[in-house]
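To illustrate the input format used throughout this study, we show a single complete record. The first block contains the structure-token representation of the backbone; no residue identities are included at this stage. The design step must infer an amino acid for every position from geometry alone.
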């Protein structure tokens, strides 16, 4: 019996989570042709087709859908074993910085797995905005940081790309409005710039209906129905959903985040960066698209 290579399973899940072979190639750092070859190899091992043509892209066959759960469990056990063997004797401290998006969605479970395998390493977590965290990393105050990527940086250990979405309260806007009301973080913010650029390019009228220095304030404004906001799927929970297509809002670009390592980062911090690079790209809970009237 042939074994299921973890590298093949990682690429397979990158396709499942990204929705296309091109996005999978970007996630795993391979060419599209190499990813296609990996999927063909995995199909040979399984003995059945895993992917099937679906519109302009590809979807999963029943065998492919069955493999998803098995692949996640295999890679979870693989990661646990890898961490346990590396972390048994490690000690010291790791200072981590992250944006609120990842602190709410994805990071807690991965930190739990890391702490279980590195019981002697003290983890210090700092939540903030990307520019602040980047400065702290450069100053040596952090060993590792997850920040929004505005330009390439030599300290990047991995990249995470997620679609930006227009989000609003599941109850809709509190009042009907002809001009797009926006809730945005104070400058400088990559989501703010992307939203304004997209609306300007589409010649859509808008106004800043709510501003905040924190995601907590932004969430309160959106949840109250005061305005819409551009974020990733990680922000869409607790009553916040994707805006209906009826609103006819322009598409937003991908949001790129970097996992960055400090100059003096020790082995445990580098192992954690590798764990985050794989774990944070796992599939997120689908966003419910609300049905509502346009402005």
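Output of the design step:
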């Amino acid at each position: 019996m042939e074994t299921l290579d973890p590298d093949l399973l990682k690429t397979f899940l990158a396709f499942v989570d990204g929705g296309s072979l091109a996005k999978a190639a970007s996630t795993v750092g391979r060419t599209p042709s190499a990813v296609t070859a990996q999927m063909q190899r995995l199909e040979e091992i399984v003995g059945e087709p895993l992917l099937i043509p679906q519109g302009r892209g590809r979807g999963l066959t029943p065998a492919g859908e069955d493999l998803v759960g098995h692949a996640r469990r295999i890679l979870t056990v693989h990661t646990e074993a890898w961490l346990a063997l590396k972390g048994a004797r490690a000690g010291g401290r790791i200072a981590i910085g992250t944006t609120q998006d990842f602190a709410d969605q994805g990071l807690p479970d991965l930190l739990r797995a890391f702490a279980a395998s590195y019981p002697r390493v003290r983890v210090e977590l700092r939540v903030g905005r990307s520019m602040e965290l980047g400065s702290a990393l450069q100053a040596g105050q952090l060993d590792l940081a997850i920040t929004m990527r505005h330009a390439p940086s030599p300290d990047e250990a991995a990249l995470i790309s997620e679609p930006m979405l227009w989000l609003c309260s599941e109850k809709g806007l509190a009042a009907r409005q002809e001009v797009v009301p926006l809730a945005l973080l104070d400058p400088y913010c990559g989501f703010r710039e992307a939203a304004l650029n997209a609306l300007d390019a589409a010649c859509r009228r808008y106004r800043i209906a709510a501003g905040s220095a924190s995601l907590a304030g932004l969430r309160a404004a959106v949840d109250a129905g005061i305005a819409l906001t551009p974020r990733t799927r990680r922000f869409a929970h607790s009553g916040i959903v994707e805006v209906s297509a009826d609103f006819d809002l322009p598409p937003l670009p991908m949001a790129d985040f970097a996992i960055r390592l400090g100059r003096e980062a020790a082995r445990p911090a580098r192992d954690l960066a590798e764990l985050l690079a794989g774990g944070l790209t796992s599939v997120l809970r689908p966003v419910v698209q609300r049905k509502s009237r346009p402005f």
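Structural context for interpreting the output: Residues 131 and 207 are 25 Å apart (CA to CA). Residues 283-295 have pLDDT under 50 and may be disordered.
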